[in-house]
Design goal:
The structure is a homodimer.
Chain A lengths: L7 H27 L9 H27 L1 E4 L2 E4 L8 H21 L3 H27 L3 H25 L1 H5 L3 H25 L8 H37 L6
Helix pairs in contact in A: 1-2, 1-8, 2-3, 2-8, 3-4, 3-8, 4-5, 5-7, 7-8
Amino acid sequence: MDLSTISLGQYTFIQNAFSFGLAVMAAASLFLWLSRSNVAPAYRMAITISGLVTAIAAYHYLQIMLSWEAAFSVTNNSISETGYPFNQAYRYVDWLLTVPLLLIELILVMRLSRSETVSKGVWLGGAAALMIILGYPGEVAEDAGTRFTFWVLSMIPFIYIVYQLVVGLKGSIAKQPENVRGLINGAATLVVISWLFYPIVFLFPLIGFTGGGAITAVEVGYTIADIVAKAVFGILIFTIALRKSEAEGGAQA
Amino acid sequence: MDLSTISLGQYTFIQNAFSFGLAVMAAASLFLWLSRSNVAPAYRMAITISGLVTAIAAYHYLQIMLSWEAAFSVTNNSISETGYPFNQAYRYVDWLLTVPLLLIELILVMRLSRSETVSKGVWLGGAAALMIILGYPGEVAEDAGTRFTFWVLSMIPFIYIVYQLVVGLKGSIAKQPENVRGLINGAATLVVISWLFYPIVFLFPLIGFTGGGAITAVEVGYTIADIVAKAVFGILIFTIALRKSEAEGGAQA
């Protein structure tokens, strides 16, 4: 990433986007944990984990923001690099934890049988972790060939997860109460759509989309995708849990 | 914003105002969350969100205060600029989150039907977000024409929201229990009056009201308006929730 092409306006805009990400994620955690007792006990673990995902993300947005600030020096309205590298890898550390957990949120809120919960959790969570691990060597590689190779490898678990969400969960979704079937389908679709952003952005440097404008698009885009995939998704999981609790007569709200 | 006109006395006064804002907002969050169980379960989400609004504002007052301190260097009782820009945009990042949420507080405490809650939440919350997004390009613009153009654009959703609060909610307010009708009207009026401050201040640079005195008036004025619109408003929402809980026999206090 060539940070020398970043203008002062772009620097500030990206800094604001990271701060916005931090605030949204932290607020989502507080909301989810404070509202946890509103859902029936059977769904509380899904809400606990939803709040964990956004809390982990809030921590990483703080780290990303501090790393961004450390990479630049601003004086008299001019910006220069300090030489301290902007640590893009915080995103991978975050995803390694949060991506498996947010698939587990979705499985938990469906309240499948214990064996199905465990097997789907292990397979989807494992595939998600593998996807992130395989993406990382490509992200930090200097040459286009390595970047592309690991993109292809990472896409294998990615496609497996998308297939499971679109086709594999169909049977389980059909068995959900009617008042939440649409919402659960919506949550699965939200994951698939928000996730499409990541492999596309990963390819940007390969197609020559670099420089200040590209960096701004990527960092702001990642932040929006993360907010949709974690905070908006978490609120959706909470809504599903609340509706199911009401339908089962266990709602407290 | 020409920071070179700020005197040491003004610098300290504004810094104290930001610290005051942070303390009030954080205290309001703690009060609201600690008192949440005093109201009936149906009103707890309104209180949770009221506390979130002030918590998000507390975080942004911390960021604003740190940015203010980074913009100045004080030695031997003389003040100079460091060249690091004071990040005024944190206010917009804050408003983008908190302004939709505080309209949602008001809707939630009214306990309308689910469809009415969703539709009013989406329309008022969406208009509020649009208002903030349209204000931002004007705030960061260098020339008066752009500032004025975005002021006009931002006033369209602003007027829509004011109209909804003054006229659109009339029917729903009339259906509220008599013991809280005055309070809910008061909360809507509080929003309208405290919000009038923002578009007026936005025009200050256009009418030549700049320099240290103007910056002090704007920053202290924003802080007071934020405290009224978020912390005082939140306490009002809590009072409404408490009265309604008592009337419905669900109060715990």
